[in-house]
Amino acid sequence: MVIQAASELVKSSVEPVLEQYRPVILASLKFSKFTLGTVAPQFTGISIIEDGSEGITMELEMQWDGNPSIILDIKTYVGVALPVQVKNIGFTGIFRLIFRPLVDEFPCFGAVCYSLRQKKKLDFTLKVVGGDMTAIPGLSDAIEGTIRDAIEDSITWPVRKVIPILPGDYSDLELKPTGVLEVKLIQAKELTNKDLIGKSDPFAVLYVRPIRDRMKKSKIINNDLNPIWNEHFEFVVEDPLTQHLVVKIYDDEGLQSAELLGCAHIRLNELEPGKVKDIWLKLVKDLEIQRDQKNRGEVHLELLYCPIGMKNGLTNPFSQTETMTSLERVLKNGAEGKETSPNGGEISKRREVIVRGVLSVTVISADDLPPADIGGKADPYAVLIMKKAQIKNKTRVVNESLNPVWNQTFDFVVEDGLHDMLIVEVWDHDTFGKDFMGKCILTLTRVLMEGEYKDTFELSESKSGKLNLHLKWNPQPLYRDSQ
C-alpha cells in the first residue's frame, strides 16, 4: 500500500513536469504505467549544514538502483503511438532538507523544504515495447533529454518544494529572483567542422535554468568556424552561489536536428557583482565528464551580474515597465525623466537610452608579429573596423618590421555603443597584394564603463603577435521617450 501510494504521488507530480518539457516532435507524453518497484534507496551519507539561518539544513547522499515499472505513452503528430519503457535506472545524488523556521511547538519546525542538491549520476535505458526505438529519428535523444531536463529544473537546487507542517506563511522559503545576469555572446574560435562540404553553421544556446522560455538562442552564422555574434541576452538568477551559465554551440543542419559542437559553463559565484567579466571558455564535449582533451574551440563572453537592490542606481529589473537591460541602466546616469500629469502631479516618464558618442582609438604598436616575407620580416599595417556601422580606417605601412610602432589615433562616431564592436586586423603589405596576419575583436563595454584604458591584446587566427591599443570614450548620449 505504501509503495502504491508513493507511486501515485510521484506520478501525479512528475507527469505535469514531463508535459512542460515535452519535445516539439511529440504530441503528448504521459505515463501508462508507473510503479516504483520493491528496491528501496540506500542512504550512504548524512551531514548537517550550518548556514546561519533560523533552521536546520540536512543533506542526505542517496543511491538507488531500482526496479520500477515505468511505461511512457507517446504520441507523435503523424499519429504514431508508441509505448516506451524506462529500464535499468541507476541514480546517485544528494538531497537537501531544510527544516525552518524552528518553533517551540511539536515537531519543532514549521515547514520542510526538499531539493536535489547535486545529481551525481543518472543512468537509464529506453525501449519501445514490441518495437524499434529507431523507427522515429531523434526520438530516443528527445525523450532522454526531456527526462534529464525535467529532473534538472523541477527539483534541482535552487528549486525547492515547500511542505507546510504547521499553519503559517512560508512564502519566504519559496524560490525568488535575486538578480539579473547580463550576457554578451561575442564570438567563438576554432570550432570543429562537422560539414563534409564547406564549414559548420554555428549557433549558440544559453541558459541558467533549462526551461524552454528562459533558454536563449543566437542567430546562425553560416559557413564559419570563427563566428562573431555580438548578441546580448538577459537571465533571471535565483541563487548566484550555486547556479551557473551554460553555453552550448551547435552546427545547424537545416531540417535535421542540430549537432553539438561543444559546451561550456561558468559558475555565477565567480562573478563580482556590478563588474563586467570578460572571459574565454574552453569548449568540451560533456560538462559532466572532464576527460575531454580534444580541442573543440573556445567561446568569448562578457558577463555582468546585478543583484536586486544593488546600490548603484539600478532599478528593479523585473518591473514590467522596465525595458532597459541592467547594463543600460548602469550607463543611463539619470535617464529617467519627469513629466507633469493632467492633475498637476509629477509622473515618471520612461526613456530609452541610446549610448552614442565618439570612440578614439590609438593604435600604438604591435609586438612579435609572425613573419610574412621570405626574408623573415613583414610590412604591417592595421585596419580598424566598426562592425555595426561598417566604418573603416587604416594605419600607415611600417616596412620590414615584426614590432611596428604606429602611434596613430582614429575617431569613430558611434551611434549604438552597447551593440557595436571594434575589429582591428593586421595585414602585411605586398606590391601585388596583401596577407592577413591576425586580428582582435573588442566590444565597447569596458571603455563605456571606464571612460578610457590602455591594454595589450593577443591576435587571434595568428601564430603569434600582440596589439597595443589605447581607447577613449567621449559620450554624447541621446534619450528617446518610450511609447
TrEMBL record:
This is Synaptotagmin-5-like isoform X2. It comes from Nicotiana tabacum. The lineage of its organism: Eukaryota, Viridiplantae, Streptophyta, Embryophyta, Tracheophyta.
